[in-house]
Every structure is written in structure tokens, then in C-alpha cells.
């Protein structure tokens, strides 16, 4: 795992929903439950990404603009710095470059064979564009990790994004590159930022079918979400056979998240991590590079969800009925003034009926599944029909 305490310096200020305490609480819960001390788990050295490395996905002029804004604290409208979503903060470049460097360190560890799985839980900043900040994201660390892997000679990389928001920055970076299959399951752009991610967005002329979008209706919960995931993601990954699976696990799909409208539980999110792990084993030779992402239920959602994620990646999954440690609850109270959740579960059953058992055109989730399969499956030689 790539970790440095400096990763919590990515901080837009006390009124911003992306508070670094969510990562701090995740690391504390993971430690208290023994995830970070499990056999085979180690911490990777982390260094800030250099300007040359960042330039794999960002314009040099934008990198300079980020540095300047972090020194002067002045907004830069041309680069979307100083907006309500992306306020300027002191040493913004340094904090952002460290997150990107951590993600590349994780990619390097997996690519070199140092480890089969590697995580940067502070990463997953999937909205940042080549020349501007966007959606709480300054530098696009998942895109940078993928670009670095391509530089090393990777020929097939799959990126699966389960954040509630469309993974627009990563999609755009590789929209016309058939070496990268991007799959995003997200709330419909009709009801949520960033307003992109329709099933019709399928890739550029040289990569038709290599951008995959499942736009789910507001209100979709565990059952519908997993029905959609199961109907789209495994068939594509089995056909594509990536050399490495890269995933972004934004946990803002939860019903308690204040910024979005899906209604998953921690149990549904936990199942998603289990399924992604299985797919890494079955389709990518076990090579799995994973990142955090969005998630604004700072106490009740993010720490539990991402501790489940880290436990899964470590090969020591945490049973849902596990009690949260009293030491962690005390820390939460001291750190935030809030009462911590008592268990690692929301008590939900996450069963679903597979889409292949029957398509219901009256169900908006099924319509979203059908639209995606129809748009991209033929490009991969897969029959989209039941």
C-alpha cells in the first residue's frame, strides 16, 4: 500500500466536502482491525510526481498554473482553480503531486511484480482534465498511473470506476486508445455532476467500444447496481483480458452520501470489492491496482467501506458482522465529535437476479443495462442479447 501522512495535506478547507479526515479515519480503522499488519501487507515509499511525470497527462502550462496558485493563493479562471469545487489552497501542487506519485508508486509495485495488489486510498481523483482542475480533482492520478504503465509497455489495461460520478477525466485521457478499456458505473448524468457518461459515449474512431458507461437512475440500490455490474463488467473483462486491472472505488454511491442519489449500503459496496478482486484474479493474472475516490459520508461510510476494500485487497476480508473497535470509536469522537458506527455492516442482504434471466423494459435499471450492452458489446464480439 502506498502511504505517507502527507497525503492528508490535500485539503480544500474546512467547508469543503472532500475533507482529508475521511482518509485519516480509514487508516485508523484499518490499523485497529489489523488490516495493515496482516501477512504480506507493506507500505510503499512515496515521492511526489515530477513535472515530467505529470506531463504524461497534464499540460505543462497547467502544472505551472497549479504551482503558482498554491503560492499566490490567487484564483486562475482559465484553469478552473479557485472555483467553489476547487478552491486554491497553500502548496496545492505539492499535495496533489504527492497523491499522483503515490499512485504511480503503487502501479510500479504491481508492474514490477513486487506485489500482486497495490492501493492508494488517497487517490482516485478521476475528474481532473489535461488543462484544468475539475470536480475536486487537481491532478488525475488514475490516468497518470495508467499512462505510466503504457510507457512501460503495457498493451491492455482495464479501468473500472464505481464512483457515483462518471469517471470523465480518465475516459477522456484514453478515449481514442484501444489499449485502455474504461468502464464507469455511475448515476445518470441527467441528475448528477459532471453531466457526462451516457451509454452512447463509446470511444473514439480508433477505439470504438473501449469507453463503456452504465448510467444508472437516481435511487438505484444494491440489487439494481449489482445486477448492472454483473451484466456489463465481467463479460467485457473476460473478453479483453487486461494485463492489469485498475479500479477506482469512490464510495459516494452510499445512501447516506450527501452529494448524490444512489442508495447502496456498505454491504453492497463490500460485495463490489469482492467481485473486482475475483475479476482481477480471473482476467488480469491477479494484478490489481486500486484507488479511493469520492465519498463524503466522512464518519459513517468512507472509513468502513475503504477498510473493507483494503481488507479484501490484503487477502484478509473483514466479516460484515465485525464490531468496530472501541479504540477507533473513541478516536472518531475526539477527532470529529461524532458517534462512530458500531458494526462493519449496514445489515443489508445483497442478492440480485442476473440480467440474463430476463430483461424488463419497464425497469429503468434494465434499460440502462440494455443501452450499454447494445452500444459496446458488438465491438468486442459479444452478443448483447439475452
From TrEMBL:
<dbReference type="GO" id="GO:0045150">
    <property type="term" value="P:acetoin catabolic process"/>
</dbReference>
<dbReference type="GO" id="GO:0004407">
    <property type="term" value="F:histone deacetylase activity"/>
</dbReference>
<dbReference type="InterPro" id="IPR000286">
    <property type="entry name" value="HDACs"/>
</dbReference>
<dbReference type="GO" id="GO:0040029">
    <property type="term" value="P:epigenetic regulation of gene expression"/>
</dbReference>
<feature type="domain" description="Histone deacetylase">
    <location>
        <begin position="16"/>
        <end position="310"/>
    </location>
</feature>
<comment type="pathway">
    <text>Ketone degradation; acetoin degradation.</text>
</comment>
<comment type="similarity">
    <text>Belongs to the histone deacetylase family.</text>
</comment>
<dbReference type="Pfam" id="PF00850">
    <property type="entry name" value="Hist_deacetyl"/>
</dbReference>
<dbReference type="InterPro" id="IPR037138">
    <property type="entry name" value="His_deacetylse_dom_sf"/>
</dbReference>
<protein>
    <recommendedName>
        <fullName>Acetoin utilization protein AcuC</fullName>
    </recommendedName>
</protein>
<keyword id="KW-0006">Acetoin catabolism</keyword>
<dbReference type="InterPro" id="IPR023696">
    <property type="entry name" value="Ureohydrolase_dom_sf"/>
</dbReference>
<dbReference type="InterPro" id="IPR023801">
    <property type="entry name" value="His_deacetylse_dom"/>
</dbReference>
<dbReference type="InterPro" id="IPR003085">
    <property type="entry name" value="AcuC"/>
</dbReference>
Amino acid at each position: 500500500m502506498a502511504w505517507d501522512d502527507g497525503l492528508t495535506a490535500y485539503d480544500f478547507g474546512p467547508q469543503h466536502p472532500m475533507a482529508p479526515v475521511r482518509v485519516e479515519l480509514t487508516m485508523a480503522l484499518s490499523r485497529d482491525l489489523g488490516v495493515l499488519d496482516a501477512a504480506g501487507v507493506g507500505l510503499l515509499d512515496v515521492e511526489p510526481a515530477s513535472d515530467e511525470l505529470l506531463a504524461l497527462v497534464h499540460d505543462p502550462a497547467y502544472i505551472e498554473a497549479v504551482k503558482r496558485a498554491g503560492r499566490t493563493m490567487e484564483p486562475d479562471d482559465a484553469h478552473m482553480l479557485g472555483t467553489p469545487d476547487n478552491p486554491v489552497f497553500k502548496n496545492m501542487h505539492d499535495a496533489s503531486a504527492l497523491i499522483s506519485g503515490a499512485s504511480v508508486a503503487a502501479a510500479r509495485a504491481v508492474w514490477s511484480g513486487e506485489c500482486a495488489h497495490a492501493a492508494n486510498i488517497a487517490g482516485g481523483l478521476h475528474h481532473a482534465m489535461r488543462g484544468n482542475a475539475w470536480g475536486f480533482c487537481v491532478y488525475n492520478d488514475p490516468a497518470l498511473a495508467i499512462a505510466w504503465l503504457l510507457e512501460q509497455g503495457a498493451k491492455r489495461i482495464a479501468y473500472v470506476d464505481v464512483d457515483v460520478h462518471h469517471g470523465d477525466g480518465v475516459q477522456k485521457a484514453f478515449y481514442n486508445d484501444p489499449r485502455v478499456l474504461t468502464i464507469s458505473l455511475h448515476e445518470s448524468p441527467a441528475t448528477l455532476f459532471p453531466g457526462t457518461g451516457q451509454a452512447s459515449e463509446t470511444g473514439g474512431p480508433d477505439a470504438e467500444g473501449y469507453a463503456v458507461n452504465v448510467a444508472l437512475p437516481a435511487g438505484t440500490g444494491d440489487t439494481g447496481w449489482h445486477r448492472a455490474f454483473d451484466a456489463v463488467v465481467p463479460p467485457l473483462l473476460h473478453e479483453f483480458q487486461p494485463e492489469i486491472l485498475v479500479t477506482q472505488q469512490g464510495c459516494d454511491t452510499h445512501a447516506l452520501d450527501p452529494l448524490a442519489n444512489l442508495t447502496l449500503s456498505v454491504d453492497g459496496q463490500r460485495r463490489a470489492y469482492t467481485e473486482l478482486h475475483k475479476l482481477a484474479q480471473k482476467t488480469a493474472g491477479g494484478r490489481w491496482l486500486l484507488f479511493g475516490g469520492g465519498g463524503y459520508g466522512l464518519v459513517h461510510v468512507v472509513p468502513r467501506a475503504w477498510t473493507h476494500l483494503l481488507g479484501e485487497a490484503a487477502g484478509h476480508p473483514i466479516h460484515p458482522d465485525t464490531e468496530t473497535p472501541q479504540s477507533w470509536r473513541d478516536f472518531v469522537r475526539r477527532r470529529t465529535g461524532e458517534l462512530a458506527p458500531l458494526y462493519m455492516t449496514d445489515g443489508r442482504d445483497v442478492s440480485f437476479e442476473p440480467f440474463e434471466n430476463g430483461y424488463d423494459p419497464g425497469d429503468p435499471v434494465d434499460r440502462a443495462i440494455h443501452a450499454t450492452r447494445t452500444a459496446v458489446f458488438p465491438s468486442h464480439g459479444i452478443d448483447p442479447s439475452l
